[in-house]
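Just wondering, can you check both lines?
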Amino acid sequence: MLYSFLNYELMLVGLVITTGIVETCITKAEELSRSKVKWGLFALLFPLIAIIWINLLKSKST
């Protein structure tokens, strides 16, 4: 009983962290003149890779 409760708590924490990473990636993509939708989807599917990658990118020069 306790195990299943902790499992749901951990799932909720993971969801909150993933949501924060997605929001961060979208904000950073907008600052770098990149596609917000593509980066949002990428961050939703691969949050850790996306947050590292977007922080290593430089701004597009137009």
